[in-house]
Write a structure and sequence with these properties.
The protein is of the alpha+beta class. Helices cover about 25% and strands about 30% of the residues. The protein has a 6-stranded antiparallel sheet with strand order 1-2-3-10-5-8, with no helix packed on it. Strands 4-9-6-7 form a 4-stranded antiparallel sheet, with no helix packed on it. Strand 6 and strand 7 form a beta hairpin. The longest helix has 21 residues.
């Protein structure tokens, strides 16, 4: 509980600071990100439990990687991150989950995610800002990737890449759990800060 509260305080501070830098009111940020003003007020007060979709919409609207909304102080030049040390940002009813492991520094950051998709369970992702490229490498099992309504089968040992600004969904396929590593390549921009490994917020179920 203490770790979750600390993570919420970090998110609250970073969202408020990014909104202020962008010169946006709560109403305007909420309109652009399609998040209610009430939810934003609660978030900036370190209340509630924002889910992955909300954090993605806010990050895209503010021109930041998701981890920039959750980052704490820099942890050094080398980061080694264990999967069980990072709380899921999304969990599904059947046991699927998504963990944001870390984000690289630099003008065009790359987010590294670990996903577990149970058979038949899916996550419809919010389309990202223009210039975002996603790469998915399946390490075990198989999945169905839907991009602009078209289905693409991706099995263990295969890698797929696509334009993240398109409508897309990740779905577990077959009879076994699918494990995959996802990278999200973010475009350079004046709003981007050098991100670091961040504390994460415990995800709420869809």
């Amino acid at each position: 509980m203490a770790e979750t509260a600390a993570a919420l305080r970090t998110v609250a501070h970073n969202v408020r600071a990014a909104r202020t830098r962008a010169g946006l009111s709560l109403e305007e940020l909420g309109r652009r990100a399609q998040v209610s003003k009430g939810a934003l007020v609660a978030l900036e007060k370190a209340q509630g439990n924002p889910n992955l979709a909300t954090l993605v919409r806010l990050a895209d609207t503010l021109g930041l990687p998701v981890s920039a909304l959750m980052q704490g102080p820099p942890e050094g030049r080398v980061r080694v991150v264990a999967a069980d040390a990072v709380a899921p940002l999304w969990t599904g009813e059947r046991g699927s989950e998504a963990r944001l492991m870390l984000t690289t520094s630099g003008p065009a950051p790359v987010e590294v995610w670990r996903w577990r998709l149970e058979p038949g369970e899916e996550y419809p992702s919010h389309p990202h800002q223009a210039g975002v490229v996603e790469t998915i490498s399946v390490t075990a099992g198989r999945m169905t990737l839907l991009v602009d309504g078209r289905e693409h089968a991706v099995a263990a040992g295969q890698t797929a890449t696509f334009d993240g600004s398109a409508s897309h969904t990740y779905r577990g396929a077959g009879t076994e759990t699918c494990h995959l590593v996802m990278t999200v390549h973010l475009p350079p921009g004046p709003g981007m800060r050098d991100p670091v490994l961040a504390p994460t917020v415990e995800a709420s179920r869809r």
